[in-house]
Amino acid sequence: MSTIIYPSPIFGPVHSRRLGISLGINLMPSDGKVCTFDCIYCECGLNHEHRPALPRPTRKEVADALEAKLKEMSQEGALPDVLTFAGNGEPTAHPSFAEIIDDTITLRNRFCPKAKVSVLSNATMIGRKNVREALMKVENNIQKLDTVSIEYIRRVDRPTSRAYNVEKVVENLKLFNGHVIIQTMFLHGCGADNMSEVYVGPWIKALKKIAPESVMIYTIDRETPIEGLKKASREELNAIRDRVIAEGIPCSASY
Is the CA virtual torsion 201, 206, 210, 216 positive or negative? Predict the structure, then answer.
């Protein structure tokens, strides 16, 4: 199946189903994928299929490239709605992530003060205080939690560390004191169906503990590296969305 390897450190702008016109910031190498998960549904492919030869961009390279792109977009009169940390792997794993967030906020304030800063993360690095502190500074701190079943996570999200502990992740998500958006992928096929009550019920209980500002649920939108995966239906997503809303937590569904 085809996969997407994004340019680095800046890509787009692209239209996001959930965020609007988004200018991407990719803190991973431009020739491959570096991630603390190896999700079977990842649009960037599986980790072992895209080993990079290039290094991660440096803090200065990210700042210089972002400044140049924002100058260009400002001159064209087409500024982004959001600056989104995403791309070929887990952005918070970059050793200079916290400093890069500070640089990005400074540049945002200078060129496009109405734009929000978003981070799409798999929550594997939020045990680090400096990462959490940096995420508290952005408008959209978006953290993945597909389920609270460790068996499912090891089979579908496939964390690269054997020390991964979903219960600890939930406890770390609580440390944001509500300044967090939970993002969850729902899908069918290849043993990846997480829409039955055995998954949804405990996941909702975890959401109540975390008390996020909102929840984003979605399904696959592009080709996946593992064949046989299928989209969740609009009806299935709406039913889960409505259950979350019934608990007093804002929730949106993207199809």
Answer: negative
Strands 181-185, 140-144: pairing is parallel
Element (H, E) at 185: strand 181-185
Residue 4, amino acid? I
The CA distance from 129 to 172, in Å, is: 10
Task: Kindly report, residue by residue over 178-233, the tens digit of the pLDDT.
Answer: 999 999 999 999 989 999 999 999 999 999 999 999 999 999 998 999 999 999 99
Are 112 and 70 contacting, i.e. CB atoms less than 8 angstroms apart? yes
Coil/strand/helix, residue 43: coil
Among candidate residues 41, 48, 47, 45, the one with its CA nearest the CA of residue 190: 41
Per the structure block, which two tokens stand in for 129? 């205080």
For 70: left if phi > 0, alpha if psi spans -120 to 50, otherwise beta; the answer is alpha
0.90 exceeded by pTM: yes
- The first and second tokens of residue 79, run together, are 């500024």
Query: How many Å apart are CA 80 and CA 41, to the nearest integer?
Result: 27
